[in-house]
Amino acid sequence: MAVETKNKTFKNYINGSWSESLSGNVQKSINPANYDDVVGYVQMSTKEEVDQAVAAAKEAQKAWRKLAGSERGAYLYKAADILEKRLDEVAEAMTREMGKTLPEAKGETARGVAILRYYAGEGMRKVGDVIPSTDSKALMFTSRVPLGVVGVITPWNFPVAIPIWKMAPALIYGNSVVLKPAQETAVTAAKVIECFEEAGFPAGVVNFVTGSGSVIGPAITDNPDVSGITFTGSNGVGKGIGQAALSRGAKYQLEMGGKNPVIVAADADLDLAVEATISGAFRSTGQKCTATSRVIIEASVYETFKEKLVEKTKEITVGNGLQDGIWMGPSASEGQLNTVLSYIEKGKEEGARLLFGGNRLTGAEYDKGFYVEPTIFDNVTSDMTIAQEEIFGPVIALIQVNSMEDALALANDVQYGLSASIFTTNISNMLSFIEDMEAGLVRINAESAGVELQAPFGGMKQSSSHSREQGEAAKEFFTSIKTVFVK
Ligand SMILES: NC(=O)C1=CN([C@@H]2O[C@H](COP(=O)(O)OP(=O)(O)OC[C@H]3O[C@@H](n4cnc5c(N)ncnc54)[C@H](O)[C@@H]3O)[C@@H](O)[C@H]2O)C=CC1
Ligand SMILES: O=C(O)CCC(=O)C(=O)O
């Protein structure tokens, strides 16, 4: 256990130093597997500290943007090496702070390292095109310039990967950043920032302010010196950020919820579909925006799929993610657990049949944690709340259909469009799904969760602001194109 983090207060990182908030208030960050375990204390900062961070970022960005891309890349490579060295410690802090199992936390931290290296290399790649001018004596080309100061507002479900997949591209293209992490996982995020500090980034290029979303969030989004805001989190908060940014002409990027379907066709490899459904729905306790929450199954294989799914779900071991042999950890917070339990109640009230799970786990090893059973509902119809709203917990809704046309229509019958999977061996089913599924990420014979850092990621409909993150797509958000005409 990472004793050295116990009872430590993690400060703000502003203009190259760790500083105390004027508020003097701190908040306990607790382990959702055992609320007596205090992971650390984080500050409840004020608008003044955000203003200081933005001012420092604005000043530092002037010199940062003048560096060669390869020089900025060298800092990112260093941060990657340091994070890699601290992988076990950072992953353990993540498991203690938000509950995902240690192997998952290690995987996420390794992903953070890989993202840093990917964007470090981006500093050596092209940023523009030569475009033939109609004037034969002129040279016309495009270049890209950074936005300036970027505000980064992140959730608790991927406390390492999400801040890094937003900060790394922002930095490599010459922006400076102010990170506001989710308060629930601010200790883990502070450890990521320590890696940036140790890598020697110039003072003010990377800043970090903790505090409540309703104070620190608007202080970032309303600051006229913040030119771009990148956000992942809930739809309500995301929409508010988008409106605030638009009203003052700032650029914004929002990644929000999902209600991701898996379609199981009659010709599917059912064992593969079961395995992927369980992994997609229950890994990270269902707390991924790409998590599987609806499974739409053709009638002829419905009963067999259901039986296999329940049998496999029975094998899931729930408990403290730091322990060996645990497959699923707790919900990340008491609030999140209560949200999940209230959706389960709603499912029962609206007439879905509870097939498996559905309860808060109790007993010696569970009483001090926020544990819920992996849960499967049968007889779900598309109009039910559990088939429409993002639950962000380990809850699956099974829906039976008579044809692939009906399956696709139901898969699209939600406000979200983030990720979707189909299990089939029939090429025409695959092609219709690729063509007609309204989602930013469609996967064939693979689980709905799973994002590759070098590929664009983002959703359709209410899942995003229609922009894409990661891979080369990040360049579109974190830079502006400049068209240059020389004669
Ligand atoms: N798309 C995703 O990956 C995520 C989706 N969610 C969804 O959101 C639900 C609620 O989770 P929360 O942690 O409450 O999400 P949230 O949207 O409130 O939090 C995300 C981030 O936004 C910040 N924030 C909160 N209020 C703000 C404001 N007024 N202005 C600017 N920033 C603000 C938070 O402090 C945090 O850093 C979950 O149950 C889940 O359905 C939550 C986390 C991630
Ligand atoms: O599935 C993933 O790895 C990414 C999920 C994600 O972006 C999120 O939950 O916010």
Question: Helix proportion of residues, in percent?
Answer: 25-40%
Low-confidence sequence ranges? 1-6
- Named CATH topology of the largest domain: Aldehyde Dehydrogenase, Chain A, domain 1
Q: In this structure, how is the largest beta sheet organized?
A: 7 strands, mixed
How many domains would you count in the coordinates?
2
- In CATH, the homologous superfamily of the largest domain goes by the name Aldehyde Dehydrogenase, Chain A, domain 1
Shape: globular
Strand content: 15-25%
Bound molecules: 1,4-dihydronicotinamide adenine dinucleotide, 2-oxoglutaric acid
Number of distinct beta strands: 21
CATH class of the largest domain: Alpha Beta
Q: Based on the structure given, which CATH architecture of the largest domain is correct?
A: 3-Layer(aba) Sandwich
Helix run count: 15
N-to-C CA distance: 65 Å
Mean of pLDDT = 97
Return the structural class: alpha/beta
Spatial ordering of strands, largest sheet: 14-15-16-13-12-18-19
Rg, nearest Å: 23 Å
EC number: 1.2.1.26
Pfam families: Aldedh
GO molecular function: 2,5-dioxovalerate dehydrogenase (NADP+) activity
Organism: Metabacillus endolithicus
What does this protein look like?
This is Alpha-ketoglutaric semialdehyde dehydrogenase GucD. By secondary structure, the chain is α/β, with parallel strands linked by helices. It has two domains: 9-256 and 464-486, Aldehyde Dehydrogenase, Chain A, domain 1; 260-453, Aldehyde Dehydrogenase, Chain A, domain 2 (3-Layer(aba) Sandwich), CATH 3.40.309. It has 15 helices and 21 strands. It has helices at residues 47-64, 69-85, 87-98, 102-122, 161-172, 186-198, 213-221, 235-247, 270-282, 299-314, 334-349, 385-388, 404-411, 427-436, 474-478, and strands at 9-10, 12-14, 17-19, 26-31, 34-43, 139-146, 149-153, 176-180, 206-208, 226-232, 251-255, 260-264, 292-298, 353-356, 375-378, 395-401, 416-417, 419-423, 441-444, 460-461, 479-486. It has a seven-stranded mixed beta sheet, with helices on both faces. A five-stranded parallel beta sheet has the order 9-8-7-10-11, sandwiched between helices. Strands 1-5-4 form a three-stranded mixed beta sheet. Helix 12 links the parallel strand 15 and strand 16. It is globular. It starts with 8 loop residues before the first strand and ends with a strand. The protein binds 1,4-dihydronicotinamide adenine dinucleotide and 2-oxoglutaric acid. 1,4-dihydronicotinamide adenine dinucleotide binds next to helix 7, helix 8 and helix 11.
